[in-house]
Amino acid sequence: MPTDPARPSTKPAPGAPEMPPKTAKALRRYRIAAFAEGVALFILVIAMVMRYVFDQRWATQVWGPIHGVIFAIYVLFSFDLGYKERWSMKGILAVLVAGVIPIVSFVAEAWVSRKVLARQRI
C-alpha cells in the first residue's frame, strides 16, 4: 500500500540521525493528542454555535469540560516533546497557539512530525 507523502510516518527521514526511543514515543503521543485536540476544538465550535444560535446551553456545559481535559493533555504532550527535542520557546508557543485555533492543530501536527523526523529543531 503506497504511503501518503502529506502524512509522515514515524520512521526517521532518510539521512537523518536515528531518533531516540523516548522521542519516538513522545512524538506518537503528541500526534494522537494533536489530532484529538483538533477534533475536540471543532466539536466545541459546533457546541458554541448550538448554544448561541439555538440557545442549547447543554452543548457547551457538556463539551466544554471534556475539551478542557483534552487541551490540557495536548499542552502536556507538546511540552514533553518540546523538552525532549530542545525546541525554542518560540517553537513551543507556536505549537501551543496552534491548539487554540480550529483546524490549525492538524497543520501543526504535520509540521512538527516532519521537523522531528528530519531531526530539526523547532
UniProtKB/TrEMBL annotation:
Q: Specify the protein's topology with respect to the membrane.
A: Multi-pass membrane protein
Cite the entry's keywords alphabetically: Cell membrane, Membrane, Transmembrane, Transmembrane helix
Q: Where is this region: Disordered?
A: 1-21
Principal place of residence: membrane
Q: Where in the cell is it found?
A: Cell membrane
Query: Which positions, given as ranges, span the membrane?
Result: 32-54, 60-79, 91-112
Record domain DUF3817: where? 27-114
Coiled-coil residues: none
Pfam families found in the cross-reference section: DUF3817
| GO-annotated cellular components | plasma membrane
Please name the PANTHER family in this protein's record.
Answer: MEMBRANE PROTEIN, MEMBRANE PROTEIN-RELATED
User: What is this protein called in UniProt?
Assistant: DUF3817 domain-containing protein
* Organism expressing this protein natively: Nakamurella aerolata
